[in-house]
Amino acid sequence: MAVSKIQYVNKEQMTSIPTVPAKNKCTADDLNEIKTVVNNNADILDDAAYGTLLYQDVGTGTNTDITLSENSSNFSYFDIYYRNNDNVYGIARVPYTTNDTFIATFAATGSDIVVKTATISFSGTTLQRSYTREKGLNSTNPTSDRNYIYIMKVVGHK
What we know:
Elements: H1 28-50, E1 52-56, E2 66-67, E3 77-84, E4 89-95, E5 101-109, E6 112-123, E7 126-136, E8 149-157
Antiparallel strand pairs: 1-8, 2-7, 3-4, 3-8, 5-6, 6-7
């Protein structure tokens, strides 16, 4: 649901009554300025509320590099929607950076807490995955290199 905008065509100046002072007139320039300001604010609100969908795989998601629909440097931050192989879901709000950013899921399995992680970074239109791990916090199982984080959606915010 987008914020409504003013839709009328820009107004043109009409012949005015010379005896009415300018401060008491509503000119075409005044109306067009109001339209511009309101519509710019609507764009800002839309981005804050909804952002720009850059990638979506509503099925299973992907555990490989992702091609985004726009250049990542056009955005200040991103909402990353993801899940792990056990269908534990997460959402992370991450800033735009070319440095690595960490996302993770945590789940209790019996007496253990299992952490599954992925490291991501942005480069142009690519969301890169560089490092994945799985570790049980209460178990003696060693840390394993398992690629169990699946990214399902990426939304950019300006």
